[in-house]
Structure formats: structure tokens, C-alpha cells
Amino acid sequence: MIVVVAPGQGSQTPGFLAPWLEDSSVRDRVGAWSEAIGIDLAEHGTNSDAETIKDTALAQPLIVAAGLIAADALLADGRHALVGGVAGHSVGEFTAAAVAGVLDPADAVALVAERGRAMADAAALEPTSMAAVLGGDPDELATLLDTLGLAPANHNGGGQTVVAGPADAIARLAGQPPAKARVVPLAVAGAFHTRYMAPAVDRVAPVAAAAAVTDPTLPLWTNADGSQVADGRRFVDLMVRQIANPVRWDAVMTSFQEAGVTGIIELAPAGALVGLAKRGLRGTPTVGIKSPEDLPAAVELLQSAPDAPTDGSSTETTEAAR
Description:
alpha/beta
């Protein structure tokens, strides 16, 4: 079973939308999304620098837009039927919800734009930040976090925990990391997935409640606890609550193992989740889609699923994606 995953904030890089926008139909679609949300996604995804697209209000819709564009290309020509399931990390859950049919893509972009603005405003209330802790003893880390007034925000698996809280406490943690651990401050603007984001939950909840939602057409796993969710409305509610609660990507990867996942394809802007899979799901084949050039390898992995066509159409569609 091959699963498709969508990355979260921090995966964006300057110019990452540019190669996708060479396709005129993609430009038109991105233009329509941009007009609807009042953000020029093409401009920011092509010409804006790293500091500009670090802004939560820009980063989140940019990441979801890139993921949806990549998903359309990957799953064209009937390949949607080969997907064994889908999941997203943090804001990537909005991409996953659209791929699974829970949200219309345009609605997903509009909802995530509101999420990004609300989280940016919540982050501006006081100076907070995040850092990745790599390695070390989990019990020692938990004790240190309590002492510093920090909290785990992302349980990513593979020996990685992202922590969040006051910016000065993050700096102290980076200066005195736990034994045998490395602390990497993240280029984000606030303490996401913690109590500091409660105002954003209050703001996004009524917007999400008004969105048109259907039940997923693919197996869909939640960041809340790694379980599979068959109720579309419940999945959207969990996405909203997750704004102020930890991401359990470790539990999602455990569910992948239990489900017998044989390959992972990460949508654009890929990198982070295939990296976690290489550490947490050792031996599982992965492909990360950063640009259209990565599509042939992703299509090949998708078509390695047990129910992939064996009548010659596999080669034809792979060539068509080149």
C-alpha cells in the first residue's frame, strides 16, 4: 500500500512554486486561488525571499497550494485509485483533506489562508518560537521542558521532537541542550500547536464550521492520535483543534506500519516527511516531490502498489508524466 503525505510549515523555500507555474493551467488555477484569498501566491512562490515567506499568513496557503498542484499531477490519468491512503503534517492536513475529498481544493486554500492569518495574529501577541530537539533521553527532555516553561508541539518520531514556547526559553534550551541531543531553532513565527494558539482556534472554528465537507474517499489519518478518520466533519474539527494541540506524526507513522504501508510519496514542497520516514520507517521506499522533475519517480512508486495495472498502462502513464 502506497500512501501520499503532505508537509507542514517550514518546508517552503524561495521560488518553490516557479517550476509548477510553467504550466499555464496551473498558473490559471493559482491565480483564481490568489484572487479568492487576497494573496498573490504566484508572486510569493516565485520571487519572495525566505524571510518574506516565513510569514505564517503567507507560508501556509503557499504550502497547501503547492501540495494540491503536485497531487493533481501525481494522481492524473486515474492514478488516484492506486493511493492506499493520505495524511498531512500540521497544515499539510488541509492538503490531505482535499486529496481525500473532504474539502474542495479552493475551500481548502481559503480555509488555510484564514488559519494562517489567525495563527500569525496569535503569534504576534507575545514573543514565542519553536525548536527541533534531535536525540537525547525523552524523560530528561520532558523534565527540562517543564523547568523552562516549554511544551512539546510535534512528536515527529525518528528521535525528533519539536518544542515550543517563549522565545527566551527556546534560546536557553538551544544554549544548554539535553545530554546527547541537538537543538535546532526553527524559522517560524510562534509557538504553534500549544496554548499560545488558542485565539486562532476561536477564530478559525466558525469559518471551518461553515465549510462544505464530505466524508473521505481515501483512508485518512489524523495528527491528533494517528487514527484513521472516516467522518469528514470530525476530521475538519480535529484539524481546527490541532492548531493549539500537539501533532502526533509519530503515531501516524505507527499506523502506517500497522496498515502495511510499502511506500511513501511526499507532495511538494517535499523533504521533511521522507526524512522522518527514513528514520522512523526504515526500509520503506520513499519519493519526495519538490518539482515536476520528481513526478516520474513518484508515479513509478505509486504504480508499484499491488493493485497497480499490469496490462502495459503502467509504462504509458509513467512516460506521459516525464
